[in-house]
Design goal:
alpha+beta, D-tyrosyl-trna(Tyr) Deacylase, Chain: A, 4 helices, 10 strands, about 20% helix, globular
């Protein structure tokens, strides 16, 4: 699962003429679901995003998280993040999860973020959207759940998020 996270002072997403989501200070998350992603990827990414210290404290140091500042999330599905441009002129999206699996994990990502206590706005899975944002900083972080927590895709003893899950193979 791949996320591009942007710290924003404001952002919105529109489908056609309908504004589907709007936030003030917080984070825009462009989210791509890859073949083989699962609940472990969702839990890892949500926790990383809401606890990542990328907001300024009183000394203008990046020491506060989204939870600390009580900011909002705008979550947008974007499978094109997984585009492979190594061959030819047209990107290949072979790494992207199928539509049904991608939407299921996208919705689970949203639900998990809400359970963490974050106000969440969203785009529409699979729709053509217009995203407007004011990048604050700018601060932009790319997080790949596969590279960050389990290069071999095996998690043993304890998940990198709160709580024990036993031993799980995630290939």
């Amino acid at each position: 699962m791949l996320a591009v996270v942007q710290r924003v002072s404001s952002a919105s997403v529109t489908v056609g003429s309908d504004t589907r989501g709007r936030i003030g200070f917080g984070l825009v998350v462009l989210l791509a679901v890859e073949h083989g992603d699962n609940q472990i990827d969702v839990e890892y990414l949500v926790q990383k995003i809401v606890e990542m210290r990328i907001f300024n404290d009183q000394n203008q140091k990046l020491n506060k998280s989204l939870l600390d500042i009580q900011g909002s999330l705008l979550i947008i599905s974007q499978f094109t993040l997984l585009g492979d441009t190594r061959k030819g002129r047209r990107p290949s999206y072979h790494r992207a999860a199928g539509s049904a699996e991608g939407e299921r994990l996208y919705q689970e990502f949203i639900s998990t973020a809400r359970r963490k206590g974050c106000p969440v706005e969203t785009g529409v899975f699979g729709a053509m959207m217009q995203v407007a944002l004011v990048n604050d900083g700018p601060v932009t972080i790319i997080i790949d759940s596969r590279r960050n927590y389990a290069p071999d895709r095996t998690v043993t003893k304890q998940c990198p998020v709160q709580g024990s899950i036993g031993s799980t193979e995630v290939n």
